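Consider today's protein:

***
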Amino acid sequence: MKIISKEVDMKKWSIGKVIENRSWNNLLFSLKIRANIDAFTAGQFTKLALFFGKNFIQKPYSYVNPPASKDLEFYIVNTKSTGLSAKLSNLKDGDLIYVEKRSMGNLTLKEVPECKILWMLSTGTAVGPFLSILQSTIGLERFKKIILVHSVRYEEDLNYLSLMRNLEKRSAGRLMVRTVVSREKVKHSLYGRIPYLIKNGNLEDSTETKIHQKDSHIMICGNPEMIRDTIEILEKEKGIKRYSTDKKRNITFERYW
């Protein structure tokens, strides 16, 4: 969270209006906002902000909605330890909020080299950019198979599962969704953490798909620990490249804090 004074260039910001604040549980909520912003690419993020007295507090959040949508949607965890997320969770329909006009981030299909299998690995609210990409549909025809993995702590945190299943049905077999629950065993979901499900082979077995350096690309979004451990296992055990000078890297990622 970044705090700056009122000496801020307001030309960079749009004043948006909250049209829906959906509370999923005591920690997770989704905001829908109407605001005039610059065009963005599916998978990118922007910043939301509010005034706290004399301070202008801002924080980056990824779009859940595709670029063509008139409503901007953000999936947010109320950390309660940071003032902004708590304030955002209490916003009501019609309340005003600042949205930065420009968008940022390289977790987009433009950064993915040619490959047959695209893996999208996410934890918690970091499923947002992948939902934006999948709802957009632009560029998805490049891939023979797309596997979306969404990992949460508890089953009750699978709040966008209905949307994911609908996208899966509409994909004509191209998209496969796999849910992971790390702190309780749930029917139809894998149990554990993403890095270890890769290491023990359970993720590949459940999708009947191998993670291979020659035909796979892995997009990762979520908490830094998951990203670090996943990349380490992919590099050591799968020969997957994080960096490459020949533009044939196999991993793109974005940390959520």
